[in-house]
Design a protein that fits this description.
The termini are far apart. The chain contains two helices and seven strands. The longest helix has 13 residues. Helix 1 packs across helix 2. By secondary structure, it is an alpha+beta fold.
Length: 115
């Protein structure tokens, strides 16, 4: 049985970190506040073939579809979910596959988000 943490949205903090990383600077609290004030639409892509897009942030949640490199994706938010030993974290991203238009949750182990 998988024990899940309660979901708390980390979208703004994740977006601030991605934005700061793409600019090569550390994310200061004021930068995080600025990002939180105006939502950022971030794009990216899948880094593996057949990445399952789930209804929730754990691998046992029903799959809505699959993403593949070249599909492209839109990143909406991040949250804590099931721990993924493949990359050693519990972060999941709510995304939309740009080719199939399927919206759901994927482990951040299998995506790359552009800043």
């Amino acid at each position: 049985m998988t024990i899940r943490k309660s979901r708390k949205s980390l979208g703004a903090a994740f977006a601030a970190t991605v934005l700061a990383a793409s600019l090569g600077v550390a994310a200061a609290p004021s930068a995080q506040a600025a990002v939180a004030a105006r939502p950022q639409v971030l794009s990216g892509d899948f880094t593996a073939t057949g990445v399952r897009i789930h209804t929730d942030s754990y691998s046992g949640a029903p799959a809505l579809g699959e993403g593949n490199p070249g599909d492209g994706l839109t990143f909406w938010q991040a949250t804590e979910g099931e721990y993924n030993p493949a990359c050693g974290n519990d972060q999941w991203a709510q995304i939309t596959d740009r080719r199939t238009h399927v919206k759901g949750w994927v482990s951040v182990c299998y995506i790359h988000v552009n800043g």
